[in-house]
Amino acid sequence: MTALLEIEGLCKAYPGVVANDDIFFSIAPGEIHALLGENGAGKSTLVKMIYGLVKPDRGTMRLRGAAYAPGAPRAARAAGVAMVFQHFSLFEALSVAENIALGMEDPPKSRDLAQRITTVSQTYGLPLDPHRLVGDLSAGERQRVEIIRCLLQDPKLLIMDEPTSVLTPQEVEILFHTLRKLAAEGTAILYISHKLEEIRTLCDAATILRLGRKVGACTPREVTAAHMAELMVGKSLSQPARPDHDPGAVLLEVRALSATPANPFGTALRDIAFLVREGEVLGIGGVAGNGQDELLAALSGETRVAPDAIMFKQQGIGALGPNARRALGLLCAPEERLGHAAAPEMSLTENALLTGRLRQGLDRHGFVDWARTRAFANRIISRFDVRTPGPWVAARALSGGNLQKFVIGREILQEPMVLVVNQPTWGVDASAAAAIRQALLDLAQGGAAVIVISQDLDELLEISDRFCALSEGRLSAPRPARGLSMEEIGLMLGGAHDMHEAVA
Amino acid sequence: MIVDPVTLIVALITVATPILLAAIGELVVEKAGVLNLGVEGMMIMGAVCGFVVAHHSGSAFLGFVAGMGGGIALAFLFAILTQILLANQVASGLALTLFGLGLAALIGVGYGGLALPAVFRPFPDALHDIPVAGPILFSHSVLVYVALILVAAVWYGLTRTRIGLVLRAVGENHDAAHALGYKVVRIRIAAILFGGACAGLGGAFLSVVRVQNWLEAMTAGAGWIALALVVFASWKPWRVLLGAWLFGGIAALQLRLQAAEVGVPVALLDASPYLITIIVLVIISSDRSRAALNAPAMLGRIFHASG
Q1: Is B158 part of a structural domain of the chain?
Q2: Where are the alpha helices (H) located in A345-485, listed in sequence order?
Q3: Predicted confidence (pLDDT) per residue in A105-160, tens digit
Q4: Chain A / chain B CB contacts < 8 angstroms
Q5: Which A residues in the span 239-298 are in contact with B, Cβ-Cβ below 8 Å?
Q6: pLDDT, tens only, A216-255
Q7: A91 with B172: Cβ contact below 8 A
Q8: Which domain covers residue B86, as residue numbers?
Q9: Cβ contacts (< 8 Å) between B288 and chain A: which residues?
């Protein structure tokens, strides 16, 4: 079969970094081709060049045998290349049909367009109402908008950038079904991901990038996930490990916790109940926007609730503020690294002071003890391998993974009795993620209770003792994580707890 | 009766028109995601340029064109500062108002009280003489009708055309619009210049038609009212029209009440149009969730193209 897209010797350098160096591969019509690599491996730059957002410095691309050098996304779309973005490129205040019209070169009249949207969405099993506002849609539905926008252009090559990171397992199944159907009709798909098992089930071929260079190619079905991970990271990863243990006394108990959100688009928490014991890791899964931020705010003390709704060692702390809770030993690391967990413009030393002041005794009579604070910041940096020139660097200047290590490390070094983390490895590369997970396990091993809120189900299954799902502000009953299948988790996430209980 | 309703409505429409013109222009600017606080400055520039050119050329039409030119010139400065040099929009807008007020005073030295040409009225005199409807509908200068057509055109353009959709998209999420290949900066500059033209035209109407004189700082906060109008009208053109008429109505009414010497302090009557307009608009837009949904999400945010 002749190749649809051939890429040869593609190079792109930015000041200070070579994002792509001599990349080559080809995709045949109807092939699902994986582009695999860690953050910063150059995947995004590569697809931006294919989609005409970035111009290559050197190298050639050929589409169906003809030279292909799109100057703008418009040209790429005209040539039959469509892209579904990682961070949705949608407009919340506009309707589905308006959003789709914006991505088309020559949109038909709005009534015809609505008709076509309905037809295409039914053909590919992606139900969608063209008149709804995108702001009211779930993450999975929003992705459908993007996919249908692409499909209406009848693309020859569909680029998908990390499409499953926001989906529930069931939604992933629907997506894969659609993609296989498209491939069977002859559409080539360039699938960007770092989720190895997904690539093994879906893709026909894979190109692996590391630090801007192509480091390998393989047929994903024929190799192990570990092999691909090694190629991607450049070294073998150690799985986080911990010996078996017996849980100790109850440290934190939450009962009948309900809270209305501070922001009008937030999710209300409804009747949440769970408990965590010494030495235990409790995983809370769920698609973002189902109450994760609100739950963290209630646990950290940013939102005050009824005193007895949150019991810390049999003491009602629901009405206490964050500092009082910190003093007791309940610490939190929120999801948003820049702006919530850390102040972007302040140095690492200053950021260390912000949560460490109380438990580390970093001030005296209202004056900051800078020597001690710097020493604390340095301890976090060395203990958690934060790559930075020094503690005087602004938090903003660190890469996502490094700042995340700093933020988690800052709380762990304060020796919490209960630590709550939200999305501890979001946007963090594989080796840093493994280090963070290991640190959380070590903390639990030392007798603390750890609550991990995450969208990454693989991560939760790997480190949790018990797992529960947060869905529309309700929490399912916790179940032992060991032996839990993805299907069961999917049902828990869908909110169908009762049905599941009946089956079990 | 101390107030004749027909002359009151006629006066209301005249008083409302400069604010309406400035507000409808600013609405388009804000829908594109740009907050230009320099409306007052652009209006006063329009007022002085319009007056000077109309006086020398003897043509009101040329005066209006010059008024638009004055507004555009100031808007262009704002566009360069905020869209190309990426300066803070709030600070740039405030500076624009101060700069416009000062520059207009300088240009206008010696022009106070000079003669002006008559303004074209589109309808024949016979129509004016129809009782009630004649004065209300047919007695105005051409700009009043232009302003109404503009409101309808902006409404139609924003909600029914592709250009309007792209403009709203840019104001809603500039990164996504950029990723789809739309020229965010160019679209915003065009919107800013349109806003400048509208504000300048509003200013020229004020000096050439309504007051028929040049006075320093004669806009007297009309630009700020226009800004408030856009926000409280939840960025909807028809509500802007309603708000402008409300303001014009109270302003016209309070002048008549002052003349009739009712027992209310003059200072309170002077302030009443501003107070009542703001209060009514706040009540209209008090449904927070719906107002928030219609606000352009990128309002006042700097767009920096990356990658």
Answers
A1: yes
A2: 348-360, 370-383, 400-412, 430-445, 457-463
A3: 777 887 888 888 888 888 887 888 888 888 777 777 888 888 888 888 889 999 99
A4: 58
A5: 264
A6: 888 988 888 878 878 887 766 666 666 666 778 899 999 8
A7: yes
A8: 16-233
A9: 264
